[in-house]
Amino acid sequence: MTNTETETRAVVVEREVAFPPEKIWRALTQSHLIEEWLMKNDFKPDEGHRFNLSADWGTVDCQVQAVEPNKTLSYTWDTKDLKSVVTWTLTPTSTGTHLRMEQLGFRPDQQQYYQGAKYGWQRFFANLEQVLARIE
Prior knowledge:
Layout: E1 9-17, H1 21-29, H2 31-37, E2 40-41, E3 50-55, E4 58-68, E5 72-79, E6 82-93, E7 96-106, H3 111-134
Antiparallel strand pairs: 1-7, 2-3, 3-4, 4-5, 5-6, 6-7
Helix pairs in contact: 1-2, 2-3
């Protein structure tokens, strides 16, 4: 039996990207590139590192949870009363990389956050793909 008050939902975005995992990893972990597709930040790909993402609407407090270069990156994503975790998974394919992002932790009473994330991550992915097409 599950308690619907404590169940959380996730936003998942998956794409086949025509770039190798190493190139995508750079865009996910280099602060100046993250700023181009996501937000201003003081990110470092070190487990335990606390960092902020900032935009005109406010800031997101984060902490790196897991780093496996070119494979997995996970960090907390806390803003106001939303406590969630973002996990990136990169899987090489014959044509590039299967890129998966999951943001887990949306409570049933956080429909506005959930819908905002569904919309926002689509936009962030589009920005990320533009950055990937431009960088060497």
